[in-house]
UniProtKB/TrEMBL annotation:
Pfam families per the UniProt record, alphabetical: Aldedh
Originating gene: ssdA
Record domain Aldehyde dehydrogenase: where: 9-459
Family from the record: Belongs to the aldehyde dehydrogenase family.
Sorted UniProt keywords: NADP, Oxidoreductase
Protein name: Succinate-semialdehyde dehydrogenase [NADP(+)]
GO MF annotations, alphabetized: aldehyde dehydrogenase [NAD(P)+] activity; succinate-semialdehyde dehydrogenase (NAD+) activity
Amino acid sequence: MTATPSVTRTSIASINPYNNEVLREFPTMIDEEVERAVAAAHEAFRGWRDLTPDERAIVVRRAGELMLERRDEFARTVTCEMGKLIGESQGEVDLSADILRYYGEVGPALLVDQPIPVEDGAAVVANRPLGVLLGVMPWNYPLYQVVRFAGPNLVAGNTILLKHASNCPQSALALERLFRDAGAPEGVYTNLFVRGSRVGRIIDNPLVQGVSLTGSDRAGASVAEKAGRNIDKTVLELGGSDPFIVLDGEDFDRTIDAAAVGRLSNMGQSCVSAKRMIVVSDIYYDFVDRLRHRFAALTPGDPMDPATTLGPLSSEQAAENLVSQIQDTVAQGATLVLGGKRIDRPGAFVEATILTDVRPGMRAYHEELFGPAAVVYQVADEDEAVALANDNPYGLGGVVMCRDLVRARRVAERLDTGMVWINHPTSSSPELPFGGIKCSGYGRELGDLGIQEFVNKKLIRTFPTTSAIGFAQG
Ligand code: NAP
């Protein structure tokens, strides 16, 4: 007689949001399989940690090269699974490969021992790996989110268990294959097909030493609570409702370009996105009008077609959630300048939407709108812009558009966010740290800071044998 599995197997489906066709289904893992994967990752850690950073970096660099060789396959998988416009999916592959290249080339240098001057003998802080890490990742950038966690941590010597979002299983498998083909030994990078509700049990496994979650604040709080009980290190990259502050009408065409790109990239399903446009009074009406023209010109269609400019959202549920947020906000008294409804065609399409006259108490004032929906606010001056920008539970990114760079920098300093871009929509590149404050989480990914999050900053203090023995304290 076989033992009863501890959790019934269900399935994880890859569904094309363009037409709601089920592409593939995969069985979820039962507890025993997950435990075996954790044990294998722990076992693999023993060998992986003993390689030099340079040796581990070869695998990560190779993964970057392979990703570019498989550019078309990766991009098509992403577009099929979550509806991203094909050109943006290709851009995501390029950025992800660049992140792997960056850590493959620069990672070892970022991990060198740091000597500390002492009066006698030597002291050094050595950067050593922690062990098995769990990554819990979202669907909106199915490749980029994973590599910015896995790339640096593999170079640092940790081993990775990756629980991807339940709606992008094909991307998850393609990434596991990528690291295996790049030369990662068995157990060094393992995909876990489990649902979010099972993550807590994995964190309870004492072999897991750290967790990085990118996703909603709800999921982040749940993971942080569990990790706290297990005294595991966490990094949380959560939601955002970024301000996009426009202080003057100089370079107005460029400002409108930045606003539209900032809000519509990834169909508005980006953590850093111009979700709250805050515009000074003298140019406010002109701004709304020009933005309306830009949004109204979008063409819905197949995200595989390079001519399409308005693709579907990631799922039916995502589309329904967005429309309900918009409709509730309008019912609460906001003005609907454009859009606001589902598009009458199959798939998870929502009209590009602009809301104005949004006030405290309305849903769109407090909640993150994850889709092609902009809220535009009118403010009298710089002080009012900053006050409105900071009146939000999130603190991820922000943008200041202003030709006077001294003024722009002054406003940037006053924003309660982890990142600010001046005169450009938010973006990401391998060498720049990425992360937020407040309900947007803590810790940083990318750059030097990103590789330092899950390392043991191990002090090794050496005394000459001739030195006197002092008091032990600590
Ligand atoms: P989500 O529901 O939090 O899902 C993200 C991941 O967490 C998925 O793998 C999900 O698994 C898992 N999960 C869900 N509930 C969980 C729980 N209680 N315990 C442990 N894991 C859990 O987020 P989403 O709606 O897919 O993603 C959008 C959110 O991510 C937005 O708020 C966006 O702003 C944020 N985001 C932030 C960043 C950043 O860098 N700060 C980047 C991208 C996205 P299942 O799929 O199985 O439910």
